[in-house]
Design brief:
This protein is about 0% helix and about 40% strand. The chain has about 80 residues and is an all-beta fold. Strands 4-3-1-6 form a four-stranded antiparallel beta sheet, with no helix packed on it. The radius of gyration is 14 Å and the shape is elongated.
């Protein structure tokens, strides 16, 4: 996940090893006095967290890495065949 704009990291909501679902907020970034919840596009496992609260980041900075998961999303009900 890359920073869509420059700003200050307000919160990191995950840690390495966490299993995340698509759309889950990983990082909250403040830019121009507005807090932006940055959500992951795929389900998977957090393999790297590159920032901490208080960090100033430029646009395009790597914030976190999620390795996509081929299994069902956490919390998703499995379909009966």
């Amino acid at each position: 996940m890359l920073a869509p704009t420059s700003g200050r990291v307000v919160a990191v909501h995950v840690q390495v090893g966490d299993r995340v679902r698509r759309g889950q907020t990983l990082v909250t970034l403040e830019a121009m006095k507005i807090e932006n919840a940055l959500a992951v596009a795929v389900a998977g496992v957090v393999t790297e967290v590159k920032v901490k609260p208080g960090d100033q980041v430029p646009q395009g900075r790597l914030l976190a890495v999620v390795t996509p998961d081929d299994g069902p999303e956490p919390g998703a009900a499995s379909a009966a065949a």
